[in-house]
Amino acid sequence: MNRPYIICHMVTSIDGKVTGDFLFQPECAGATDIYYRINRQLKADGFICGRVTMEGSFTGGWYPDLTKYKPMRHDMDLKMDFIVDDLSGFYAIAFDTHGKLGWKSNKIIDPDGDPGYDGSQIIEVLSEDVDERYLGYLEAMEIPYIFAGEKSIDVELALFKLKNIIGCNTLLLEGGSIINGAFERAGAVDELSLVVAPTVADKDSKPLFMDADIANFELVSADKEDGNIVLKYKRK
User: Fold this and answer.
1) What global pTM score does this model have?
2) Does the pLDDT of residue 76 top 70, yes or no?
3) CA of 8: how far to CAs of 131, 174, 230, in Å?
């Protein structure tokens, strides 16, 4: 397999939602603790999230003043990836199609110091439809970036590069409905790791996969833990 092995690791409600106000209910606290523990136990090379999840969890909506950065001119027919020399460790991979995330460091600074996230090396996955001043900002911050697609991100190309350029063998997909759906449609979800909280979400909450295709998985294990269900599936 010429891409990383992908484990979609999520907390869900009983009705299969993954984002929404239900996550902040006291009944979800135990599921969240289990989720973070499993995150550390899976020993992946990094985790993948979309822009919205990264913004909500880490950047808080901050964005740099791009007028301060020199545009990095790229030939439209040859967009060059930017890789730093000492690239190693656990990676925080942001699928940021148009370059809208603002980072104040080239590593994740987790407010709670969680060992599953804090200190992770940030990598930006971009489409070619990005402001060249944003590339200048990323290079000034020593944040590696790779291109995967012209107007939208090509999941297969992104994963090929993450395997063959970055060296990732196993990655956790911990994004929201949109990016999870894009991976599922690309046939790039190899395993599901789900912690099901004992609560039903409201109508505005989002499902595990947005715009999914039919795919079949095999149940590997199902365990009860402190009132939550921990499920593991593998793609058939």
Assistant:
1) 0.94
2) no
3) 30, 6, 13
